[in-house]
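In this section we walk through a basic example: taking a raw amino acid sequence and producing a predicted 3D structure, encoded as C-alpha cells. The instruction is simple. Fold the sequence below.
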Amino acid sequence: MDHVPLGNTGTFVTDLCFGTWRFGRETDDGVVEVDKRRAQDLLTAYADAGGNFIDTADVYGDGLSEQWIGDWLADRDRESFVLASKVYWPTRDDDPNGQGLSRKHIRRQIDLMLDRLGTEYLDLLYVHRWDDDTPARELMRTLDGLVRDGKVNHLGASTFEPNAWRIAQANEIARQEGYEPFTVAQPRYSLVTREVEYDYVDACAEYDVGMCPWSPLAGGFLTGKYDREEMPEGSRGAENETFADRYLTGANFDALEVVREVADEVGATPAQVSLAWLMHHEQVTAPIVGARTVDQLEENLGAAEVTLTDAQFDRLADAKASPSLV
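The resulting C-alpha cell sequence is shown next.
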C-alpha cells in the first residue's frame, strides 16, 4: 500500500483504510459477526500488510470495537497508526443528552472513546450524522475545542450525502471563526452507488476535503458473487429486500459485467478492480474495507497492486451513469 495525505492535512495514511464496524456486532439471531480473537487477527493481518489507518465508532459493537482495538494497540507503537472514530448515535437509554452532537454528548463521548482505545488522542474524529437539533456554530466550536485541547487532531463528516451543503455550511463557519474545519468526508460511494456525484464530490473538491468512502464494494455486490439468475443461499441479496432493491438491479449487473471484463484484463478480482477504481479517483483518500476473515481482507488489500489505465478507469466510470444534475 502507498501512503497518501489524509485529506489536506500533513498526516499520511495508507490508501486502504480498515473498517471495524463488524467487531462485536451481533446479528438478529445473536451471532457475533467478528469476535475478539478474529478481530485481533484481522488487525494484525492489516498491520503486517503495511496498513496504518483504522476506522471505528463509539457504537460499533456497543464500544467493543474501540476496546478491542485498544487492547491490540497496547502491545504496539500507537504512533505507527492513524485512528479514526465517530460520535452521534445514542449511547444511553432514555437520556436526551446521550445522543446527537451537543457539546455535552460529544465531550462525554470523547473521553470514553479515548479510554477504550487506550490513547490520549484521536487522529480523526468524524461526526457520524448531522444533528438538526444542535446549531452548526455550537458544533464547530465544540469540535474546535477538542482540537485545541489535544484530544483530536483532525475532523471529518460521515454520511452527510446527499446534503453537501452541510459541509459547506460547517466549513464556512470554521473559516469565519478560525475554527478547525472538516478535512475528511466519509460518504457511501462505489461504482454502483453514485449519488455523491450529484454535487457532494464537487463540494468536497471546493473545500479541499478528502473522501474515505464506506461500502466501496456495495455491500458485497461488487465482489462478483451475485448472478442475475441465482442468488447465493444465505446471502444478503437472498434474504434482505432492501439490499436486493438497492443493488440487484439491471443497471448494476450491467456495470458488474464491465468490472469483470477489466478484472480479466488486469489479472485481478472484481472486488480488487472496484477498490482500485476508487483508489485512482483524484478526490478519494482511502476507501474503507471491512472483512470477516483474513482471506477476505487479504483479497481486498490486493487492490493496492492493481494499476488501471486511464481508459480502463473511464470505462468503469461510464459503466453506470452518474445522477443527472438537471
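Looking at the output, two observations stand out. Strands lie at 3-5, 12-14, 17-19, 53-55, 82-87, 122-127, 152-158, 182-186, 210-211, 288-289. The chain has one domain: 3-221+284-306. In the next section we compare this with other chains.
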